């Protein structure tokens, strides 16, 4: 007994020594490192080491106390009546920790201003085991703090308490001792107002590590080494136990310490989502195995020799032991669960061993299996195992219904420097592998560039039929995918004028761009008289030449490809030598653009002929020229 | 007449001197130009190489000073009064030609037939 205690003592002592060495190393690293990230990591390890040391110390303390108590009361540790039965241990795993944040929308959406960043990590403690997650940098672009680690605690009893603590450290001020100029600069730059002063004070205070209470009070006070460098402060904590264990994600409440004034403050939503799974040993390990004889079939005298294995919720009966090792299907599987009733019955007097009757409900039926062991001791052993199994199941409750999966963290953990965790809002990546999507993008972009340049472009020729000139409204081109349709009164008329193929409606973005394109082009005030003239000049390109749009997106794409991406090319065919009036386009990208390009080329034609010998008023001419110049679809010609 | 970036452009040119005709307050030359680095050169009907963004003569009015001086439709203007016209915008080109204080413009133009002629003559030797 004392040997075991001594063994355990020395184990813990070894662990304490190890942690102390780690702590020294972390202190040295902290003092030596210059990079911010290194300092944060070292500080985190320091905190973890300290926590572990505290935990081991308190465990040592408890053990010593227990020894003293034992010596006094002399209670037996053998398993007697069921009250003294101790449940089996199990593995508890916590994974996929996610802590949502609740930024104020003003905070979240502002683009300028320094990014207030905090380094956070979670400390998880169960029994004597303490683990920390990786460190995550959090700033206002994140909506949640996510920890990808899976932490597995190996020896947990059903009454476990898993304490989750969130530590955070403000990552703005410079903590390294040696960079006085920078510290000075930061001090001078930040106005020493109320908030800055508070921050200073917060960083000045000695690092407050959360004293890990482990049931028994930690009465041993370790001298906390004060090291320069970033200090983590506890931000929130929660405790999870068996009732929180489930095979899926659940949300738990967090208790938040700290307030807005702290430098390490983060606006937590107040809950944490995670998956806590437990695998009690009774589900994963063989609790009992041995030779049995089972009555199979209906024969009262037929006993079959089997090798029985009690594992999880089943008693597997194999022909031979080797079968079990070879993973052959068992001959018989008897369910052992909460509904099972096991009874030891007295056999007839001439046999030594007792019978074990296992009764299960399958469907509405009651099925009873009768087993017997070779000797009385064996029977006793089996009964004992069954009782233990029942007890474990009652203790581990929902964990024994089904085996929960625990993914062990792969031992080869690549040192991933996680890139800035994108938030939901910033990672709306539309899959660009989709061709149609890309095409639509390109089209939309091109159309928007079109619009931009065609703000002063020539009016389509049929616009001359409209008398009124609505005021020009600028198109907002800030957002790629948002196309603003300027509120023009003639736009409904626009629509009715142009033949619209149903194709248009598939790409609504483009449609509206078209509409705005044309409505923009109708706005210049002094254009109409000129274009009426232009139109009257040229009879060849009339509205009847508007080609019906039968286009698929592919055709549009080929149009675009033909036009090239570099600049803008009019879809007009190059006119034959000697003739300068462009032919109506073969592939019309859009009705409006073809017509306007037609007319604008005509415009320049007629412009040129007009300007040849009789110059119109200079203002009209300059406007015309300006418009013609800005339209890249033209190949301008000028009379000199 | 294609141009290789970084390499000097060489061409066989003809000098054409045009006397501007005064028409009231305006000075006219009597031809139209097209092209420019800001223009879509693929629509140029006269250029051999559709990526040529030079200034081309697109029309010459009958009886105009330009026609008299020997300018022909399809000529590419290389220089105007010493100013380069191979890498200019359309508007810059127009301005260089229509300076109010200049009565005469001396153009250096090139055309396919000139190249042919020179090649012919060199081949003969």
**What gap, in angstroms, lies between the N and C termini of chain B?**
24 Å
Share in helix of chain B: 10-25%
Specify the structural class of chain A. Answer: alpha+beta
Low-confidence stretches of chain B: none
Tally the helices of chain B: what do you get?
3
Largest sheet of chain B: 6 strands, antiparallel
Q: Structural class of the helices, strands and pairings of chain B?
A: alpha+beta
How would you describe what is shown here?
The complex is a heterodimer of chains A (640) and B (125). Chain A contains 15 helices and 18 strands. Chain A has 640 residues and is α+β, with helices and mostly antiparallel strands. In chain A, the strands form three sheets. Chain A has a seven-stranded antiparallel sheet with strand order 14-13-12-11-17-16-15. In chain A, α1 (2-32) runs antiparallel to α2 (36-73). Chain A starts with a helix and ends with a strand. Mean pLDDT of chain A is 67; it is low at 78-82, 174-183, 205-222, 412-424, 467-551 and 564-615. Chain B is an alpha+beta fold. In chain B, strands 1, 4, 5, 6, 7 and 8 form a six-stranded antiparallel sheet that branches. A two-stranded antiparallel ribbon of chain B has the order 2-3. Classes of the chains: A alpha+beta (640), B alpha+beta (125). The A-B interface holds A 567-570, 572, 574-578, 580, 582, 608, 612, 615, 629, 632-640 and B 26, 28-29, 31-36, 38-46, 50, 58-59, 61, 90-91, 93-94, 97-98. β18 of chain A pairs antiparallel with β4 of chain B, so a sheet runs across the interface.
Helices and strands, with pairings:
The complex is a heterodimer of chains A (640) and B (125).
Chain A: H1 2-32, H2 36-73, E1 90-100, H3 105-109, E2 118-126, E3 129-132, E4 136-138, E5 144-156, E6 162-170, H4 180-189, H5 194-204, E7 233-240, E8 250-253, E9 255-256, E10 271-280, H6 281-284, E11 286-295, E12 303-311, E13 314-318, H7 321-325, E14 332-335, E15 341-345, E16 355-362, E17 365-373, H8 376-396, H9 435-453, H10 491-497, H11 508-521, H12 527-537, H13 553-563, H14 591-613, H15 618-630, E18 637-639
Antiparallel strand pairs in A: 1-5, 1-10, 2-3, 2-4, 2-6, 6-7, 7-9, 8-10, 11-12, 11-17, 12-13, 13-14, 15-16, 16-17
Chain B: E1 14-19, E2 21-23, E3 26-28, E4 31-35, E5 55-60, H1 65-69, E6 76-80, E7 83-84, H2 90-97, E8 104-110, H3 112-124
Antiparallel strand pairs in B: 1-8, 2-3, 4-5, 5-6, 6-7, 6-8
